[in-house]
Design a protein that fits this description.
The protein is α/β, with parallel strands linked by helices. Helix content is 42%, strand content 19%. 48% of the residues are buried.
Length: 381
């Protein structure tokens, strides 16, 4: 299978593309549905993901290494067989846990020493270990092991961190090449994306992007955003970085974000997105609609016979009322979370389809303006 991103069309900086992978074609821009432990929180199955239009599932290297362990997943034939998903899977590298578990880790040149958040057991993960775990998981796309830098960070620290991330990347590339050449490797065509870092320092970001571009990787991610900076700072960094990444490779904005964030980043040339937001919001009864978010717990929905979002074709909206879903939440029934998560993920996946359609038609700018206006007219209640 060739590893190829084809830029089909541009509207301004916005890109409409197609990415060929060993597990099928990804139409971009795309939102990856986050299944941290090889499952979407909220009782959503792999079969459900197909029904709601998911193209790519994302799982977490660090968490799957802890349980059931990447060796168990390898013994079961890799993530695709384990979770019964035959479309592309992206695994993050564990690098985000370097940021999120900052109280439980120490960063050294060789890698990162963790204490397990489950039982306190000591864990070491460096570039080679991350690649080995992701090879055992046999994902379609593996992410390079990096340090996700906190914001704000001093310029001196950011420079040191980016330099270390570059050294780690060289080790990731060498180890993945080795693993893909082994006879017992499950996915010998596993792809590798490098990650741009640099905090909110545009010059550091640009220099790092230029270095990454020189390495001719399968794709490139912009990391270290959505970690406390303002939306304006995030957009400024994207504007700075994207022009220095290759136009013939996919660009992935990690951990972002809201529907508004996605529209703004698509306009700036981003192809791939992921975020826990739609599933997490759904589990708490916060649901996305054509007119903005609603809180299904509100009493005004107690006898509301309408679906969550009129015109929506998700499984929840096709069959159930707001009143019933509200009742399920109030009664603490598991079905409440399942229906709400299905709805929110469908909303995101369908929005990406609409984005692609409008890019195909040269009408993305009008679509974006209309969406932002409709979402702005109904605030969270």
């Amino acid at each position: 299978m060739s590893k190829k991103y084809t830029l089909l069309k541009k509207e301004g900086k916005a890109r409409r593309g197609r990415f060929e992978t060993p597990h099928g074609t990804i139409e971009t821009p795309v939102f990856m549905n986050v299944g941290t432990l090889a499952a979407i929180k909220g009782a959503v199955s792999s079969m459900d993901l197909k029904e709601i239009g998911c193209q790519v599932e994302l799982s977490n290297t660090y968490h799957l290494h802890l349980r059931p362990s990447d060796k168990v997943v390898a013994e079961m034939g890799g993530l695709h067989k384990f979770m019964k998903w035959d479309r592309p899977i992206l695994t993050d590298s564990g690098g985000f846990q370097v940021f999120s578990l900052s109280g439980m880790r120490k960063i050294k040149e060789e890698g990162v020493y963790f204490s397990s958040h489950i039982d306190g057991k000591k864990i070491f993960m460096g570039p080679e270990e991350s690649m080995q775990i992701q090879s055992n998981l046999a994902s379609t796309i593996a992410m390079a092991f990096d340090e996700c830098i906190p914001n704000p960070s001093t310029r001196e620290y950011v420079l040191q961190s980016v330099a270390r991330t570059n050294r780690w990347l060289d080790r990731c590339i060498a180890e993945m090449d080795r693993l893909n050449s082994l006879p017992d490797t499950i996915n010998k065509e596993q792809m590798l994306f490098g990650i741009n870092q640099g905090g909110c320092y545009e010059d550091i970001r640009i220099e790092h992007a230029k270095h990454l571009a020189s390495l001719d990787m399968d794709g490139y991610a912009i990391g270290g955003l959505a970690v406390g900076e303002t939306h304006e700072e995030m957009y400024r960094v994207i504007d700075a970085v994207v022009p220095h990444l290759p136009e013939d490779k996919p660009i992935y904005l990690m951990g972002v974000g809201t529907p508004e964030n996605i529209l703004e980043a698509v306009e700036r040339g981003v192809d791939f997105f992921d975020c826990v937001l739609p599933a997490r919001n759904g589990r708490h009864g916060h649901l996305f609609t054509a007119n903005g978010k609603i809180n299904i717990m509100n009493k005004k929905f107690e006898t509301d016979e309408r679906p969550i979002d009129e015109g929506c074709k998700c499984p929840a909206c096709k069959h159930y009322t707001r009143a019933y879903i509200r009742h399920l939440f109030k009664a603490k029934e598991m079905l409440a979370m399942r229906l709400a998560v299905l709805h929110n993920l469908y909303f995101y996946n369908n929005m990406m389809q609409e984005i692609r359609d409008n890019l195909d038609n040269g009408t993305f700018a009008e679509y974006k303006a209309a969406k932002l206006e409709s979402w702005g007219c109904k605030k969270d209640k």
